[in-house]
Amino acid sequence: MNAKLSLTIVEILSVLLFGILGNNGSGVQGLTITSDYLASKYNPSSTVKIELGDSNYTDIEVGAFSKYTKLKVLNLDGNLLTSIKQGQLDGLNELEKLEMVENRIASIELGAFNGLESLTYLDLSGNSLKSLQTGVFNGLVSLKELSLEFNSLQSIQSDTFSGLKRLRTLFLNENELTTLQPGTFNDLLSLTYMILTANSLQSLQPGVFNGLVSLKELSLDYNSLQSIQSDTFSGLVNLTFLDLAENRLQSLQPDVFNGLVSLTMLCLYGNNITVDEVSIRNITNSKVQILL
């Protein structure tokens, strides 16, 4: 009797465990966001905000949001999404804020953001992106803030940010970037803040920051910079803050800061350099504060 009872309990526990783990043993069952599910919770004609965070979603049905034409905010943080596919966000013409933080997104299909002309804020931080296709952000003509920090980006194609002429803030910190191609930021005419902290950059080439005529703050701290070529920062006429702290710089070329006419703060601590008159003679703002 006890043996049969014990066997029954074991069988019940096995069924429950299988139900929790699902077929893939990942610890959660895969859930898909479908149009039917959304309709059961949100009125398509009046909903302006949808919160679907921390819900173990692994996929989005193509066209799931197509009836939510008034939606302004979509939160998909903390799920298990592995990609963003073309058609999944169709219909969201009025969407202004899209949050997909801390998923497992490793790829974004070309055209995935088609139709999101009103989007001003896109947060893809804390995912598994290693690379971005050229043109992946095409159509995001209103985008002002883009967060790509805490991914695994190793490279960025030169035209990745093409067309983002209204972008003001770009977070690229905590990735694995080793180099930046000249022309990468050419179209970012409105960019004001760019954070490249904690990557693996070893050098910077002239032309890499071309086009950033509105940039005010540039953070390059906690990289592996060993050298910066002359005129690398030329053209950054509105830059007021430049952070090069905690790198591997041992010397600076005499004209490395040529053109930084608005600079007021320069962080150089955590390097092996001594700033002398030759190194900073082309910083024309006499009020610049240098932190060593």
Count of strand segments: 17
Largest sheet, described in full? 11 strands, parallel
**What's the helix count?**
3
Radius of gyration: 24 Å
Structural class: alpha/beta
Portion in beta strands: 15-25%
Key features of this structure:
alpha/beta; eleven-stranded parallel sheet; 3 helices; 11% helix; 16% strand; disordered N terminus
Give a quick summary of the entry:
This protein has about 290 residues and is α/β, with parallel strands linked by helices. The chain is built from three helices and 17 strands.
Description:
This protein has 292 residues and is an alpha/beta fold. 11% of the residues lie in helices and 16% in strands. It has three helices and 17 strands. It has helices at 2-21, 35-41, 277-280, and strands at 31-33, 49-51, 57-60, 73-75, 83-84, 97-99, 107-108, 121-123, 145-147, 169-171, 193-195, 203-204, 217-219, 227-228, 241-243, 265-267, 289-291. The protein has an eleven-stranded parallel sheet with strand order 2-4-6-8-9-10-11-13-15-16-17, with no helix packed on it. Strand 16 (265-267), helix 3 (277-280) and strand 17 form a beta-alpha-beta unit. It is elongated and about 70 Å long. The termini are far apart. Mean pLDDT is 88; it is low at 1-28.
Explain the layout of strands and helices.
Layout lengths: L1 H20 L9 E3 L1 H7 L7 E3 L5 E4 L12 E3 L7 E2 L12 E3 L7 E2 L12 E3 L21 E3 L21 E3 L21 E3 L7 E2 L12 E3 L7 E2 L12 E3 L21 E3 L9 H4 L8 E3 L1
Parallel strand pairs: 1-3, 2-4, 4-6, 5-7, 6-8, 8-9, 9-10, 10-11, 11-13, 12-14, 13-15, 15-16, 16-17
